[in-house]
Write a structure and sequence with these properties.
The complex is a heterodimer. Chain A is of the alpha/beta class. Chain A has a single domain, classed as Aldolase class I (TIM Barrel). Chain A is built from ten helices and twelve strands. Chain A has an eight-stranded parallel barrel, surrounded by seven helices. In chain A, helix 1 runs parallel beside helix 2 and helix 8 packs across helix 10. Chain A is globular. Chain B has a single domain, classed as Class I glutamine amidotransferase (GATase) domain (Rossmann fold). Helices cover 26% and strands 30% of the residues of chain B. Chain B has six helices and 14 strands. In chain B, a hairpin with a 5-residue loop joins strand 5 and strand 6. Chain B is globular, with a radius of gyration of 15 Å. The chains are: A alpha/beta, B alpha/beta. Chains A and B meet through helix 2 of A and helix 1, strand 8, strand 10 and helix 6 of B.
Chain lengths: 252, 203
């Protein structure tokens, strides 16, 4: 039976892992390569490296780090951040990424997902959506959650999947950093309209948030989190043991 | 020395890195002479069967792999590379494979329950068959490996060394004398995957 995936996310700036609360007030956490190895040893099923650098120099440091991580960690790696062209896909895939996630790039360039999926296959293209409720409607936000695009989120995500995105990371800005649990309502709305894997992101604060997620929404394939893992509040091994106790299939 | 056949499909960085991790020398090559002088051959692959089969045929590398395998050299196909070892595939039409193994590759759609997602992506358990395996001698039944695929090999029961359960028993790995195949990605399957690669390297 296919297992539910637990995915730590590493936000990388200038070669270091950072994590913000509601995307602001970033604080340095650790070395990305060391952290990747640690998570892999602890039983992480996959890793996401998110490049939050804006400069070209930062981008070069990021790809060096990615190569080093891919040489030492043998689980799937997804890379996101600064992906605006098919050449950007090429750049990170050559460094050992298995999947590439697009966010603002897909908002700005409507053909990006289609072009990338055609060249590298659907399984390689992940749509990462930052979504927030505005007057009771789910809206897509761009630029790391700072800019409301005005687009209705659920139909936009469905369109991305129709264009070739093989996986959806749904990050709820409303629950991100709050540590009060995943945004089940928002996740369910997405699960109802797409038939590709959906990864829940934003809001995990404790182990029971993951058991609640997979019990309430069997269609969700994976749970993604950052700070609770980086700061050691939740150990992946403990989390997986608890999921297993609750009858949720995991790789142990 | 192990030759990883480079015929223009997919990225071989992770595969190369995983052999480096277990201390095995590999060369990524599209040269016939290098493949012929290698001790063992890896046939990788991602993407569509038809396109890959055509590239193998047009480059002549498919014939090289077949003749080396028939001469007894160990060959392992990974993911699409495994599917290419079979006689044919029904992925978008009908395409001929290398024919080193009996059987064909068919879509999961219509075979597995409709509520299961396709592709089959993620970590799933290996369910060993009673057939003795050299490839899997360093791992155990029930170990998890990482899959990404929408098609699977069928009519190959005599050669299957492990199935995986995804709404149906899907062929996960095959072995016949010196020919081996993994539907999953050993280079992305953590320590279990590295032990499978070691099993191949130390044949």
């Amino acid at each position: 039976m296919i297992t539910k995936r637990i995915i730590p996310c590493l936000d990388v700036r200038n070669g270091r892992v950072v994590k913000g609360v509601n995307f602001e007030g970033l604080s340095d956490v650790s070395s990305p390569v060391e952290l990747a190895k640690y998570y892999s040893d602890c039983g992480a099923d996959e890793l996401v490296f998110y490049d939050i650098t804006a400069s070209a120099e930062g981008r070069a440091i990021f790809t060096d780090i990615l190569c080093e991580a891919a040489r030492s960690v043998f689980i799937p790696l997804t890379v996101g951040g600064g992906i605006n062209t098919v050449d950007d896909f090429d750049r990170v895939l050559k460094c050992g990424a298995d999947k590439v996630s697009v966010n603002s790039g897909a908002i700005r360039i409507p053909d990006l997902i289609y072009e990338a999926a055609k060249r590298y296959g659907d399984q390689c293209v992940v749509i990462s959506a930052d979504v927030k409720r505005v007057d009771g409607v789910f809206r897509v936000f761009a630029k790391g959650g700072r800019e409301n695009t005005g687009m209705e989120a659920i139909s936009w995500i469905k369109r991305c999947v129709d264009n070739g995105a093989g996986e959806v990371v749904l990050n709820s800005i409303d629950t991100d950093g709050v540590k009060g649990g995943f945004d089940l309502e928002m996740l369910e709305a997405v699960c109802n309209v797409v038939d590709v894997p959906v990864i829940a992101s934003g809001g995990a604060g404790k182990i029971s948030d993951f058991t609640d997620l997979f019990k309430a929404l069997p269609k969700v394939d994976a749970g993604l989190a950052a700070s609770i893992f980086h700061f050691g509040e939740v150990k992946i091994s403990d989390l997986k043991a608890e999921l297993k106790n609750n009858g949720i299939p995991v790789r142990i | 020395m192990i030759a990883i056949v480079d015929y223009g499909v997919g990225n071989l960085f992770s595969l190369e890195s995983s052999f480096a991790k277990i201390g095995v020398k590999v060369v990524v090559t599209s040269e016939e002479s290098v493949i012929r002088s290698a001790d063992k051959i890896i046939l990788p692959g991602v993407g569509a069967f038809g396109d890959a089969a055509e590239k193998l045929k047009n480059s002549g590398l498919g014939d090289v792999v077949v003749s080396e395998a028939k001469a007894g050299k160990p060959v392992m196909g990974i993911c699409l590379g495994m599917q290419l070892l079979f006689e044919k595939s029904y992925e978008y039409g009908e395409h001929e494979g290398l024919g080193l193994l009996k059987g064909s590759v068919v879509p999961m759609k219509g075979v597995i329950p409709e509520d299961l997602k396709i592709p089959h992506i993620g970590w799933n358990a290996l369910d060993f068959t009673s057939k003795e395996s050299k490839l899997f001698r360093f791992i155990k039944n029930g170990d998890f490996v990482y899959f990404v695929h929408s098609y699977f090999a069928t009519d190959c029961a005599d050669d299957v060394i492990a199935y995986t359960e995804y709404g149906a028993n899907l062929c996960a790995a095959v072995e016949r004398d010196n020919v081996f195949g993994c539907q999953f990605h050993p280079e992305k399957s953590g320590d279990v995957g590295l032990e499978i690669l070691r099993g191949f390297c130390e044949l």
